[in-house]
Amino acid sequence: MRALLIFMLFMLSNSVLASTNVVFLNPGAADDSFWHHIDNVMQVTAQDQDFNLTVLHSNRDRNLMLNQAVEISNHASLPDYLVMVNDKDVAKKVLDTFYQKPVHIIFMINDIEQPLRLQLMNDPHWKKYLLPAVIEDNYHIGRESAAALTQLFTTTPAHVVAVAGDDVRETSLLRTQGMEGYFNLHLNTVLELVVYADWQANKAYEQTHILLNRFPGVDGLWIGNDEMAVGVVKALKETHRKPGEDIKILAINPSVLSYELLKNGDVNAIGGGSFLLAGVVGLNIARHQQTQTFDLCLEHNFYRHLTLECPLFRMIVNNQWHQILEQEVKAVCSVN
What we know:
There is one protein chain. By secondary structure, this protein is α/β, with parallel strands linked by helices. Helix content is 47%, strand content 16%. The protein has helices spanning 2-13, 33-49, 62-74, 91-98, 114-120, 124-129, 138-150, 170-185, 201-214, 226-238, 256-263, 277-291, 311-317, 321-330; strands spanning 20-26, 51-57, 81-84, 104-107, 158-164, 189-196, 220-223, 248-252, 269-272, 304-306. The strands form 2 sheets. The chain has a 6-stranded mixed beta sheet with strand order 6-5-7-8-9-10, with helices on both faces. Strands 2-1-3-4 form a 4-stranded parallel beta sheet, sandwiched between helices. Helix 4 (91-98) links the parallel strand 3 and strand 4 (104-107). It starts with a helix and ends in a 6-residue tail after the last helix.
């Protein structure tokens, strides 16, 4: 298979080097803005910390990710570390594939369920090879983003609809729960409905038309990522509403896409920063190789709200990924 060929070529090309080999099973597509940011940060961290990195994308295809994992686990040259996301509950089967093999497993963005992690920690193999997860408090992100949207309203109560990513992945579920919890506890906002657009602009476009027909007087939109925001804005303009004016909008994930939306006034607020966790993973891999400890920045929340002038937005737009690593990850984690 193509994934195995890529992996074999990678191992052969680096076989003469006494370096650490890392494979990242990226569940998204290479051109998805969020997952592309993850790739960029991890790649510059690999360069900075001098380890070899292979990135394999599964394009949201659970079976493809499983096949990639099986191919890697059966190869004669195993990586030292496998980084993955518990996407669509694929984790348990991947862990079974690597059981009793000397590969350290790191979950990023989405961890396995806590009862399963506690159970695995009783196994001598996983006690050594299953390393701490690198995740954020996604319920907190949901609440913070909802609070930021609420601050934009001038009418009371304000009526809100939400376009979330999906109702499967823990990241999306917790953010949605945090957002719902905030709106439901504040009398000055009414959350009318949450719909799911699977992180895609075209599905968000379709869902927005349905929402506007059902709730024509909506005051605000909470959107789970930047690509869905593109579809939402397109739908609003087609219905002769001015996004950012007639309807206040908050979207998550800073990117070139969301920068342009914010610059044009089509959205009012952008929050995000979770892609920086890729740098935390890379720094911890280097630390683990040297000291057998894996504890840098595991409790830090990188989520924040961004203005057009903020340094992180500027560096993303200018593709300054080394600077992002230095200023947004290494500085926070106190790594020189």
